[in-house]
Specification:
single chain, binds zinc ion, 4 helices
Length: 110
């Protein structure tokens, strides 16, 4: 029964996302304006709820993704996807540099 329910939920969510994609790509200006007025707030709300479920603990680990011992060291895939899709990969490199990026640049070899 859980598999049937999961499949129905999954199909309903993907069906809604497909509908919104079609409306955004093929809809007239009135439909697109209505879409922006109603759906963007719903989508950002859903995204915030999803991110809240994956809020990191005091050690920076996701409580949802760290449920299994072998995944505790992995970064949360939900936050990685959110950052990639909402902020962008190029900003991530400059905003969250590794410790080696704090070193001063090496002098040029002549
Ligand atoms: Zn997570």
């Amino acid at each position: 029964m859980d598999e049937v329910l999961s499949s129905a939920l999954r199909d309903a969510v993907f069906g809604r996302l497909d509908y919104l994609d079609r409306l955004a790509e093929e809809g007239d200006q009135h439909s697109k304006a209505a879409l922006a007025d109603s759906e963007i707030v719903r989508l950002t709300g859903a995204f915030r709820a999803l991110l809240a479920d994956h809020e990191p603990d005091e050690h920076g680990r996701c409580r949802s993704c760290a449920a299994t011992p072998w995944r505790r060291r992995a970064r949360c895939t939900v936050w990685k996807a959110a950052y990639r899709d909402l902020v962008g990969d190029t900003v991530q490199r400059t905003a969250a540099p590794g410790r080696h990026s704090l070193r001063p640049p090496r002098p040029a070899v002549t």
